[in-house]
Amino acid sequence: MYPNWKMYFEKVGDYPDRIKNLHFYYSVLLRAINKASDVIRDYNFTTGDTESDLNAKRLVNQILDITTVECDHPF
Known about the structure:
The protein is mainly α. It has a domain at about 40-70. The chain is built from three helices and no strands. α2 (about 15-40) packs across α3 (about 50-65). The chain starts with a helix and ends in an 8-residue tail after the last helix.
């Protein structure tokens, strides 16, 4: 798989307002993840396969470690 630059520029790249919208949505999503990180970390991932459950928990914690930002102010 490779980037489709032509489609990128047709849909987003040539439109600065769309890039600003993507930035806004991304920041809102990160704030939501940050606020819900404790609940997400404590979520019980139960599929019936203990190995899959542990793997899911590990991956979610890795994502939260990357996306959770310490802030001096509440959101």
